[in-house]
Design goal:
Largest sheet: none
Structural class: mainly alpha
Number of helices: 14
Number of strands: 0
Distance between the termini: 45 Å
Radius of gyration: 20 Å
Order of helices and strands: HHHHHHHHHHHHHH
CATH class: Mainly Alpha
Shape: globular
Number of domains: 1
């Protein structure tokens, strides 16, 4: 298959040029065992953040006296909620791509699904129990999002693993940034975001390490990884008004390009030691990746967020 980026760049013309390496299957199995151990230690239920209705007043105060969430806080939860609601489509897409993958990857997908399934339940229930927003309108948005589905043009397991590693890191970063901004307005909501972020970082580590194993064993595998970083888009983009929602949250300092650079591009660049692997990138892809990174870095350095990290 020939894969072509939005700017006309071609990744590869061969059929599955970057298959999962069979010799790495024992290491992938070991990574899955590590994940299971970490997941068992974290085991939690979303109802931990949603007390019984009879305990609502003691936990949250009289709902009639409780001020509603600010628009920034509400839209932050909605972005998370609508993204997480589309879990069935993400599972379907990954299951299709993992048909030829090692058994440990398919079993990990089952664990991942069980762990991820709590996230939308937590966000949606939180808004309902705290009586925030229009509940009918929110349910309509959820239905519309699910009806739109989600598809990817990725056709091979290693490439989707690269994508999901970046996606999980981005989701983790969004939730951490959200918790940091919202902790004064609603400490319990901030705690909920951090709890979910803990799941995302575990998932990211599993995928990140599989990518690392492959590029260390076969440095040319840096090409599909660079491709996914260069053309990355969140799966939540299928939700209604995604671009407007993203711009609103970026404007109010929740998550924008500067956060994406700091928490995702810069962090993952170091984790995968991309600089060391640059000589193995196809020339045009290398040039575009470096240009992409430099543009983001300059934007980050000009941002108010950067001053808080120094």
């Amino acid at each position: 298959m020939t894969q072509i980026g939005k700017d006309g760049l071609i990744l590869a013309a061969e059929i599955n040029p970057y298959p999962l390496l069979k010799e790495l299957e024992p290491q992938i199995e070991a990574l899955f065992e590590q994940h299971k151990e970490a997941s068992r230690k974290r085991d939690w239920g979303y109802r931990k953040f949603l007390p019984h209705p009879l305990e609502m007043k003691a936990y949250w105060g009289d709902p009639r006296e409780r001020p509603p969430l600010s628009q920034v806080a509400y839209q932050t939860v909605m972005m998370a909620n609508l993204t997480e609601q589309n879990l069935p489509w993400y599972v379907r897409g990954l299951a299709e791509l993992f048909k030829t993958a090692p058994p440990s990857l398919n079993e990990f997908l089952n664990w991942w699904t069980a762990e991820e399934s709590q996230h939308s339940a937590l966000f949606d229930s939180y808004l309902y129990f705290t009586n925030n927003g229009d509940h009918e309108e929110r349910q309509t948005l959820v239905r519309d999002t699910l009806r739109r589905g989600w598809e990817t043009d990725i056709e091979y397991p290693f490439q989707i693993i690269c994508y999901v590693a970046i996606q999980e890191q981005t989701t983790y970063a969004f939730y951490v940034c959200a918790a940091n901004v919202l902790k004064e307005e609603d400490p319990k909501l901030a705690q909920a975001f951090l709890q979910v972020a803990g799941d995302e970082i575990l998932h990211m580590k599993f995928y990140r390490e599989i990518v690392k194993l492959h590029i260390e064993a076969a440095p040319e595998y840096i090409n599909p990884l660079a491709w996914e970083m260069l053309y990355f888009e969140m799966p939540g983009q299928v939700m209604p008004d995604y671009k407007e929602r993203s711009r609103f949250l970026a404007k109010h300092g929740i998550f924008g390009p500067e956060h994406f650079y700091h928490y995702v591009v810069s962090t993952m660049w170091k984790e995968w030691d991309i600089t060391k692997h640059l000589p193995f990138l196809k020339e045009e892809l290398r040039e575009r990746l470096l240009k992409f990174r430099n543009i983001l870095e300059k934007r980050y350095n000009r941002s108010a967020f950067a001053s808080t990290r120094r």
